[in-house]
Specification:
The chain is α+β, with helices and mostly antiparallel strands. It is built from nine helices and ten strands. Strands 1, 2, 3 and 4 form a four-stranded mixed β-sheet that branches.
């Protein structure tokens, strides 16, 4: 006997007939919550889930691209509560391609269904490249290699930076003057032309002796600017544990290290330190015998700074209280 029809439809009655007929419950991209709203999952969000899942696979190699996204790269088509996945990736040597593709297909399908609630109709895996780059045997070696690449030696700014700043300001001012001249010439702004008032309506150039000197001066300035452009940038930091170290300290930090070591010497009450690129100057105040204190401070400072490269020269001045 048919049950009486009701005025309101439940979420179970809104489910598609083909899903119930097959006996498989299909997840939904829309969360029915009364007046609480609805959930919509963007295509790009699903693509990110697929790409992150693929990157965590041990047989997948990450490859960057000059334009666009690198590998692994996912393309997703979302249609209602169902999605179609396509993953393009590179596999490391010597992993078997067929088994790795099947493992990836299962991994991305499971991740999408569990994290989004969408059903996956199809998951294609395209192996675009095989990466034969040798890998490190331990995660410690990988971390050390990454740190070594990231620890570039700090240097000062380029000497030609101020030239570029001044040139940019001059161009901005010239542009403002040009805009005003155009506005005055077209009648948009009342006033007279600055260029006409400054140079006159006609400019006559006659040969003069000072033009030779001006040309030579302009050539010299151009050469100086060219030299500033290619001038080697000054080093601003000291390396710790050799030139290939992963830690760099400033000259001010070297002075702090030396001052801290000097304060540990007996009879020293205060230390003031200054440091340049190749020299550290310490002013030590003590109530002890100056020659002994100076020798002790020199010894502890030299020991403290022996791991700094280049090793700075130390100058110590002792004052008695």
């Amino acid at each position: 006997m048919d049950s009486p029809a009701s005025d309101a439809l439940t979420p179970d009655e809104l489910a598609p007939v083909d899903g119930s007929a097959s006996g498989v419950s299909e997840p939904s991209a829309i969360a029915f919550g009364g007046d609480r709203g609805r959930l919509e999952i963007a295509q790009r969000a699903v693509e990110r889930i697929v790409e992150i899942t693929a990157r965590r696979h041990p047989a997948v190699a990450r490859q960057s691209a000059v334009l666009g996204r690198g590998l692994p790269k996912a393309r997703v088509v979302v249609a209602g509560r169902r999605v179609r996945l396509q993953l393009e990736t590179a596999i490391t040597w010597p992993n078997p391609l067929a088994d790795t593709a099947a493992d990836l297909r299962e991994a991305i399908t499971t991740a999408v269904e569990e994290l989004t609630g969408l059903g996956v109709d199809r998951a294609d895996v395209i192996i675009a490249a095989v990466d034969a780059t040798p890998t490190k045997e331990s995660t410690g070696d990988v971390a050390a290699s990454t740190a070594a690449q990231a620890a570039k030696q700090p240097v000062a700014g380029a000497a030609a930076v101020w030239v570029g700043m001044v040139g940019a300001i001059v161009l901005i001012l010239a542009g403002c003057v040009a805009i005003r001249e155009m506005a005055v010439a077209s009648g948009l702004v009342a006033g007279t032309s600055w260029l006409t008032d400054g140079f006159g309506r006609t400019v006559e150039l006659d040969p003069a002796g000072w033009l030779v000197s001006a040309g030579i001066g302009a050539a010299v300035v151009g050469l100086l600017l060219l030299l500033l452009t290619f001038k080697r940038r000054r080093r601003t930091h000291h390396a710790v544990n050799g030139a290939d170290g992963l830690v760099w300290v400033r000259s001010a930090d070297v002075a702090r290290l030396a001052s801290d070591s000097a304060r540990q010497v007996d009879s020293v009450t205060s230390v003031a330190g200054r440091s340049k690129r190749k020299r550290v100057s310490l002013t030590v105040t003590t109530f002890g015998e100056p020659s002994r204190v100076s020798a002790d401070v020199q010894a502890v400072v030299d020991e403290r700074l022996q791991t700094i490269s280049p090793v700075p020269r130390t100058r110590i001045a002792v004052r008695e209280e």
